[in-house]
Write a structure and sequence with these properties.
Blueprint: H1 8-18, H2 29-42, H3 45-63, H4 75-92, H5 98-104, H6 120-123, H7 126-130
Helix pairs in contact: 2-3, 2-4, 2-5, 3-4
């Protein structure tokens, strides 16, 4: 994977993520969006999903995050967020780097954005945590 198109800050960030070298206190929602943006700049959506799934699971294990309904890796949330980031990149441009993209797409920094697409009853289930479930309120972008 050719990372030469990334800025030094984005290369450092993704390398720290892959090495599980980001402190739990520093890992937040904007970090998830940055990570998604970086992988989507480097590879197609489906390949990015595979890479992100593995990376997030490894990262959660390294941090000792318990696998509970509201903690740990969540497949539906991950897949939905990746699709939202990919759609924003396609329709509004990728921006020059992940931090600029986040500033230009502030709606993606709203942690509750998935509530537009999913009811609480649908997304807060072990089924949705383990496997992707389609939204029940509004359709996710298909591109």
């Amino acid at each position: 994977m050719d990372r030469s198109m990334l800025t030094a800050a984005d290369r450092d960030f993704i390398e720290a993520f892959e090495a599980c070298a980001i402190a739990a206190a520093d890992w937040n929602h904007p970090c998830h969006i940055r990570m998604a943006w970086i992988y989507l700049r480097l590879m197609p959506l489906e390949e990015a999903l595979v890479t992100i799934r593995a990376g997030l699971r490894r990262f959660a294990m390294a941090l000792g995050v318990p696998d509970e309904i509201d903690r740990g890796y969540h497949e539906t949330m991950t897949a939905a967020w990746i699709r939202l980031v990919a759609s924003a990149m396609k329709h509004h441009g990728p921006g020059v780097d992940s931090e600029t993209f986040c500033r230009e797409m502030p709606h993606l920094l709203c942690r509750t954005l998935l509530r537009v697409f999913y009811s609480r009853e649908r997304i807060r289930t072990f089924e949705a945590k383990a496997a992707f479930v389609p939204p029940d309120l509004a359709g996710l972008p298909s591109d």
